[in-house]
Please model this.
Amino acid sequence: MKRLFLMTIMTVLLASCAPKETTLTFLETTDTHGRYDEFANDAHLIKTMKSKLGDKLILLDNGDNMQGTVFQYCSNHDPEHPNLVSEVLNYLPYDAICVGNHDIEAGRRVFDRVYSEAKMPVLAANVIDEATGEPYFVPYTIIERDGFKIAVLGLLTPYVVTWVPDRLRPGLRFEQLEAAAEKWVKHIREKEHPDLMVGLFHSGWEPMAQNLPTDHPLGRENATKWVAENVPGFDLIFYGHAHRAKAEKRVNVAGDTVCVLNSGHRAQCLAKAEVKLKKGHKPQISIEIVPSDGEEKDSEFLAMLQPYLDRAREYQGQIVAELPVDVFSDDAFKGPCLWVDEIHRCQFDVVEAEGIHADISMAAPLSGGQPLQAGKLFVEDFFTWYPFENALAVMALTGKEVKDYLEYAYEMKNPIYNFDSGAGIIYEVTDKKPMGERIRIVGMADGTPFDMERTYNVVMNSYRSMGGGNHLINGVGWAQEDIKNHVVWQSESDLRSLFIEWAAAKGDLDSEPLNCWKIK
Model:
């Protein structure tokens, strides 16, 4: 009896000593795209804050780290050393991370390895293992600080399936983000009773004009705003994918305030939330975007990074070919340009070597404002010329569908990576006419007639061939689920590697564009 009395007294005393309130600071990074050469400022700022705040600082990352630079590409294909992404995540270290679509695009062999090396929870509740029917990654994690429970739910835009071939994500299914948010926030609130509910979403703010209708089975590609306003239960949401730094407050359908932040991309800023928690009260949250420019660089981080840079420098310094004239990506807006037309030439030749004849090629410059100077081209120049690891595909389109595709491409020429031009055909664009009336296809480039009823083999990158940019959906009018029925062939290698091999075999690249189209 006496022992029970003492235990009761101890319990009461411990409860009375437990903190009734605390202040926590959250930092988010996102969409680094392998630009860890620009991350040393962020690393210094994060470490400085950690030294002051200790475990009251919670560090989160929102994905898209495994693609974007030569040294990240080299690390993804280097089995002898830990991957650069996991090295950075473990170095700081992060408390939790979300998966990004470009992390999935690196391929399951790569992202499985990276995430097995990472020492923190890897979140994405709506990525499902088809073998088990359960989330492939951790759906959410509980972080405990000062007697308070913080739940962090990770979600990824399911539009991965429209950009990344099945071969790079075998056995995985991607569920609608909005429905997953409703399901998991309800589950977490009922089971965990957290003091703070945090969303970690790799999904943009809201649909853009060229996005699919919001009643599509995949929902919204960019669903963060909708979830913040329509799924009660979240106190704080960090998001990525949109590449725009943003911090604002929204009021949801339950009348509660939700704080929403995005740190931008390429290590330019940190998203910061200071959260005051008090038992029995709603969290009080202040938010801001913190630029990292001008901060001191973390020398230890740079020392950790250097071996990766050295290995990449050896690879990217290899000479590939000779470029006879300067080329500029923005010339694509003016008419035929060598920047795009060398991609067309490469695509035609690569599929021909595979025993497949392509009648027409579609391609766009994938980054605006980029020049390449005449002279020797190195491997690193091709990462400027073609920054992504898309594969190559051949699709079957009728002549009318080719015209509709080009009509849409010209309408959506901003951003520049959606501005496809065609080769293998001769056509004119009347700029002042409305969409649907701008394109007049004169004939095939070999002088034969162009037939609106005939089916043509059209070569393009795999991003486009899976519906990326919506050229085949909003332009041609295909349903997303039907696109795969039009695929004639797809490469195993990524297009940039094929481009490098093609240029190396050619030696001297061309000095004149194909001149397949003009603006009237």
